[in-house]
Amino acid sequence: MSENRTGAWQPPSRPEWLERVNEEGRGMDIASLVPLEPGELLETARRNTGLSDFGPEEWREPFEVLVKALGEEAELNLFGRLMTRSDLLIWLQERLQIEDAFRRHPEIEAEVIEAPVFIVGQPRSGTSILFEMLSQDAQFGAPMNWEIMFPCPPPEAATYRDDPRIAKAQHLLTQWHRVAPTFLSMHELGATIPNECKVAMNCTFVSDNLTGVFQVPSYYAWLMKADLTYPYAYYRRMLQLLQWRNPRRHWLLKSPSHVWSLPVLFKVFPDARIVYTHRDPIKTQASVTNLLGTIYWMRSDKAFDAAAFERVFQPQSIAVGMNLVIDQIERGEIPRAQIHDFQFADLISRPVEAVRSLYERAGLSWSAGAQAAMEAYLANKPQGKHGAHRYAVGEREQIERDRRHYARYQRFHGVPNEV
Hints:
The chain has 419 residues and is mostly helical. The protein has 21 helices and 5 strands.
């Protein structure tokens, strides 16, 4: 990303209570008070659960790379360090409990994940709103935030809507809104809102979601060379666990960054159906800057360094990912018949009609009940409900330069300009 556009982002003001907490922390040895040390974290997770088996060792190297980077690069403030330690322990304890559940109930391995639907695309291209709309359809089961965070004991159909873990997850998730109130205008979090595959993959410690929460360049560099078969296969295992006592007809799943790993996704989920959302990259690129800058600012005072994450911010690098999918389609490396384009512009102008058209193209069954549920959802979530998300898109000359990088993508997928 050019310096001008990165420089247009300014950190939002912190709430007074948070500023006071972090100010007190500046005079303390917070690394000793809130330790982020691999061995100690593992021992605490074991002690908290009474379990010891974390499963096959693929997770250990990325876990250690991440924790080292958190200590040396992320520059976490006091509250950011507390949030991060809480997250790491949740993910480690999740692993212990998942492995224990499969050990005690090997029949879970027989669960079939049939024809899941994955929503992919650029960040900020409508993937979240489309995900939430489709999740209103009873034929789909989307993983809720609370069950991603606390999947054990496996959710039961009878108590799925009033499980006590919902309240715990709600408090931790909405903490993000209390730490950075402006974040709510960009992305709403809640225990009963469906969340992304890459968030669920946090417990594998091989997930680009982690680079969206922390500025950790060394972990990012490690991740760019990693074999992603492991986190996808582990995620499939998690879905088996979640549907074991709460059956889902078809899983509805979502992460924008699946576009970088579609061959692996199809390797692990060969009958997957992909909904690929499209939006003018000039708009999405600027919006992502604002979103990630704010997320990093929640936990750290470190200056926002977009250059360290060029795949997310640099137009030429973003275009590489877009063109990679086109190359894979044209070479037959991924099944074009299982990939269905969906335009953000249609979602905004005629959402229910656009979704119905998608169903027809994807061979999905449409029902009056699904339509009514989607219309009710939209009525209760008008655009800007939590405030306007404002961001700069750059000067005319910069836009023209950037758009040249996106020409092939926009032409191949028929993506209109917004600016």
